[in-house]
Amino acid sequence: PESTHLKYLRKCLTLAEKSPARPTNFRVGALLVLRDDTPNATADDKLLSTGYTLELPGNTHAEQSCLLNYAATHKVYEENVADAFPAKEGKKILLYVTMEPCGVRLSGNTPCVKRIIQTRQNSTDVNNGIDKVYFGVKEPGTFVGESQGCKMLTAAGIQWEFVPGLENEILAVATEGHKQANKKQEADERGRNVDEVSK
Ligand SMILES: Nc1nc(=O)c(N)c(NC[C@H](O)[C@H](O)[C@H](O)COP(=O)(O)O)[nH]1
Ligand SMILES: [Zn+2]
Question: Which residue of 18, 49, 72, 113 is most buried, as measured by CB atoms within 10 A?
Answer without folding.
Answer: 113
